[in-house]
Design goal:
The chain contains nine helices and 18 strands. With 339 residues, the chain is α+β, with helices and mostly antiparallel strands. Strands 2, 3, 4, 7, 9, 10, 11, 12 and 13 form a nine-stranded antiparallel beta sheet that branches. It starts with 11 loop residues before the first strand and ends in a 7-residue tail after the last strand.
Length: 339
């Protein structure tokens, strides 16, 4: 929106429409995975590591200084989590609530903008019905992307999904994490429920329960979420893992990030060779330190949204899908009148 434009909404917020729970981790045996599972606990380890960080040139080039540095003990306390000696399978349980109402901002202080946006959103719902977004969300449920590092190296991964009185079973390894070019009847059925919930065609929210089973090997390490330690110098641990009431777990934010990793519409998708990225206003991928949707290229959320919300036409359907996916994600998108 332009400066001092009367259509600017300085207060504008959308509640997220995909609401995941934390994911809880359990250990079990593959052959008996539906019968019994034990909550996984965190274990504290005290380790003596080696000095492996980059050193100053003065130290690198002096063998005596280098030896003196290497001899120093790198003592650490860390959290760890692993299956028991007789367990070979990780079980992850989570729920996902799907809400409607994307056409209604949770806060908006400009009636003109609110009316224009509502018309745009309802038109999108009428023309698209959230079918493409819902299909991608459903595929991310089926492919177990939310297992993150726990998926790497797994021999088998099975995903069981319950929703609306129905049950589906997916072999997660049948689906690539690199694209969404799949046609699968069960995925389409699940996607239809998600789309109807987003469109408001159901009586209330849709609640999906997901159980993922990964065969990773007896006593193998598993990876709950790691807590952010803002000042490691003051704590006694260098790595703190997440647990809820003693059960190892994954943050709902991390699960949500995986579910909304559906953006294949950013300009560098083919050349970047990293696959889909999470839907974010600037296409931020923090582990790569890069934004794939920049205002300079006019492909960021705000540039597209400001035009689209006021009744403008975007270049293609992909841009419309992206804008609506950010709104499903939710956030605060108002623009200060001082800008």
């Amino acid at each position: 929106m332009a400066k001092n434009d009367s259509s600017v909404a300085s207060v504008l917020a959308f509640e997220k429409k995909l609401v995941p729970s934390d994911g809880y981790l359990y250990g079990t045996i593959w052959e008996k995975r539906f019968e019994k599972a034990t909550p996984l606990k965190l274990n504290e380890k005290s380790v003596r590591g080696t000095i492996s960080n980059r050193l100053k040139p003065a130290v690198q080039n002096d063998p005596m200084k280098l030896n003196a540095e290497v001899e120093k003990a790198n003592l650490q306390k860390v959290d760890a989590c692993a299956l028991d000696a007789d367990e070979d399978t990780l079980k992850l349980i989570l729920t996902l609530k799907v809400l409607s109402g994307v056409e209604k901002p949770s806060a908006c202080n400009n009636a003109e903008f609110n009316n224009a946006y509502r018309e745009t959103a309802l038109k999108y719902i009428e023309e698209n019905g959230f079918q493409e977004l819902a299909r991608r969300y459903a595929l991310n449920i089926a492919n177990s992307r939310y297992l993150w590092r726990n998926r790497v190296g797994a021999e088998k991964v099975e995903v069981i999904v319950f929703a609306d009185g129905k049950k589906w079973a997916f072999n997660a390894m049948d689906f690539s994490l690199r694209d969404f070019n799949y046609n699968h009847p069960a995925v389409d059925e699940l996607a239809g429920l998600i789309a109807d919930a987003l469109c408001g065609k159901t009586k209330g929210p849709l609640l999906i329960t997901v159980e993922a089973y990964a065969l990773i090997g007896k006593a193998q390490e598993v990876y709950p979420s790691e807590e952010l330690v803002l000042d490691k110098g003051k704590g006694d641990k260098s790595k703190i893992l997440y647990a809820v009431n003693g059960t190892a777990a994954m943050h709902s934010q991390k699960i949500g990030n995986a579910l909304r990793t559906i953006d294949t519409w950013y300009p560098e998708f083919e050349s970047a060779n990293i696959g889909p990225i999470a839907v974010e206003p600037y296409g931020a991928v923090t582990n790569l330190g890069k934004a794939y949707r920049t205002p300079k290229d006019k492909v960021d959320f705000y540039t597209l949204f400001d035009k689209y919300a006021m009744g403008g036409t975007l270049e293609n359907k992909e841009q419309e899908h992206y804008v609506m996916a950010v709104l499903v994600r939710g956030g605060v998108f108002g623009q200060s009148s001082k800008e």
